[in-house]
Protein: AraC family transcriptional activator of pobA
Organism: Halomonas organivorans
Amino acid sequence: MADSLVPVFQLYGETRQWPTPDLLHCESIPERSRRHDWRIRPHRHADLYHLLHLSAGGVNLELEGSERTFDAPLLIVVPAMSIHGFHFSPDTQGHIVTLSRPLAEGLQQRLAGQAGVLARPEAHPLNSPRQRARIATLIDQIDDEYRHPALGRSHLLEALVEALTVEVARLAEPLPGAAARSRPRQRGEAREHLQAYQALIEEHYAEQPGIEWFAERLGMSSAHLNLLCRRLAGRSALQLLHERLLLEAKRQLTYTNMTVGEVADGLGFSEPAYFTRFFKRLTGMPPRDFRHQHKGTEQPETP
């Protein structure tokens, strides 16, 4: 299936902004799949990574051009830009943990080679009772922490995901020839350019350089960069930059005591009023209202 014909979603079936100030999203497989008659049709994500844990049931898995059927217990890795689809049996139980690109890139920096498992589309049967129990425990802890926010939420979630990534890397390591089999197929120059643009965004989003600045460093025109982003990510180059700024703004409003003015200044906005207009345009509410609605127990409320 051609890249331009494959739907691009934030989360399957949704076009809204990333729904949480956290760098990950966790939900049960039945929560989303039951709504779609247990079939998630082939699609891809420009900047999200999936870890699916099946504790019961089974799935017909379409992943990067191959189709196979698996029974639980199973763990599936779906990297960003990988075309994937699922047809779950109605008795399937388990969870989908979705990682944002900033979280995945942070794991790659901290775990070096072990985090490379997140870039390899693969289904890993959980044949060892010990590995099965350890992974199931981590998934349950992630789900519980995600649903019941408490002190230190963001740090604990990231620590649990880091531990889960190490466990998945251990799953992949013993398989003879696994590195050769699991290595992603050549993505093509367009996908490489998109990934390079997303990496530049991650390095420079708080400076808010213009799209022309990004395009120049990628060796292309801004029009070509926009075309590439719309075709592969379903959003313009500027929208991708704004989504990263918005995610960071949400995180700082939720998990820090910084004033709205300090958040605005740290994210490269020339004045708080401009930041407030930007935030309200993308979320439907001003930053202070968002803070009141989403503030957890990590820090006392900022006046």
Notes: DSSP finds twelve helices and nine strands in the chain. The longest helix spans residues 153-172.
